[in-house]
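>> received
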Amino acid sequence: MDPRLAAAAAAQKGLILHSQARAVGLSNKAIRHRVDSGQWVRRARGLYAVAGADPTWQQALLAAVLAAGPRAAAAGRSAAALWRLPGFSVGPVELVSPYGTSHESPLGKVRHSCFLPDHHLTTTDGVRVTRPARTLFDLAAILGPKHVERTLDNAIAMRLTDVEQLRQLLAELGERRRTGTALMRRLLDERGEGYVAPESELEARFFELVDRAGLLRPDAQISLGDDESPVGRVDYVYRAPRAVIELDSRRHHSALLDLEADRRRDNRFGAMGLRVFRITWLQLTRRPDEVVALLRAVLRLAA
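>> returned
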């Protein structure tokens, strides 16, 4: 095989486009000979697989993308599986393309989108795919609200996207009255500016800041109270100054009932001689010096 064609096949999981074969000098007759002799297997019009290439799901997905045209990309559940989002396994082949109409082919399901700019696409694992933020909006059009919400939180926790990126995309897609944008708007409104998935990035950022400032780490995940009057588990405790540190993600500490519950618990800690300090994501990321100053002041209480 021509080295240039071999390199293309290696980069494309054993797949070769008719145009690539012609570009290295193969005639139509030579291409037909390779198919008739079993060297190549025809996968779609103008697309072949080298005999013996591993027929993986990724190859099937790439074949569908290549066959669907130069601007087609893996999308929906296929994109979610490529990004390794929990709850999505290899299986259905779903694509999006700005050309043609929505249809099902032997290689997979193609959905037409009249708005598919280049900055909504990227490549991962050798397959052109919608970026994580666009993938979430596409999923919001086909999945139930709870499934979309879990996937949104997982994508943020995995650092595939963030609220700011999603809000920018909402501004692009919301005016087009796309199915799913209303759901995404509601989910983003609930999360607010500083939202992160709880017990993941928020806590990691806190310890990173504590270590960088050379401060003593507090004890983590401590249950306070006694057998007769338990109060609850707190994020962190500095025992000597009798100080409780709580990390507040907007998702879990902004609703009225949550605020009331927090205040009642803080009052009970106060009655036990504990001082409660609350730190938000916005403070950690935008005003870290203030957080360090607060923690230093707390630790000075023990001196």
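>> Residues 251-257 have pLDDT under 50 and may be disordered.
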